[in-house]
Amino acid sequence: MSDLADALRELPRLLFGGDASVREIALRTLLVSGVATGLATCAGIPLGYALARCRFAGRSFLLTLVNTFMGMPPVLVGLVVWLLLVRSGPLGGWELIYTKQAMVLAQFAIALPLVIGFTAASIQALPPQLPDLLTMLGAGRLRMLWLLGREAKLGILVAILAGFGAIISEVGASMAVGGNLQSSTRVLTTAIVTETGRGETGRALALGFILLGMAFAVNLALTIVQQRRKQ
Fold first, then answer.
1. pTM
2. What is the mean pLDDT of the chain?
3. How far apart are CA 148 and CA 126, in angstroms?
4. Which CATH number goes with the domain that contains 41?
5. For residue 214, what are the domain limits?
């Protein structure tokens, strides 16, 4: 309880005090996770739609693979990306290891299967006759894709929420490929680990509350959009 009391005393100082490093870490957290979520959304929604509507050999295997990757431990994703980006790895020439770009890449890999899986499920939940009906009504291919996306918009928003929620709270991948470098790659989750290791439990809890508040604010905004479109 004393650690919780320390956290509650520390929280106003971190939020409204002169500690610029906390604001920098918070903004970096939003930047990295926001970019990764945006990239996963741009790639995952079309891939999810294709998996849901196209019929081809190996489709069931790919869906199973996506569903499996949805539960992949972030630290494992971080290890794989680390092996790719280190100097001796196949992408070592890009010199991205221990940078924000590497963190975006790792978080993108975590979020992508979630966006694909939830998008595919939302598209598959639509009536199977709907594409044929839209075609009969004169909708071209692009128009049909747009209308199907509108019908599945609630599920697609859930896909985006799931992807963002998974990566803003992960620590293993960010630590592995970012290195938790102060003023460079430290984000809120890795800062919490650092403060805990120093024995600053109250400060670590306060940072956790800030992270939770940020996640709540983003999810609230997307949920409001979701519910307004539902009405």
1. 0.89
2. 88
3. 8
4. 1.10.3720.10
5. 2-230
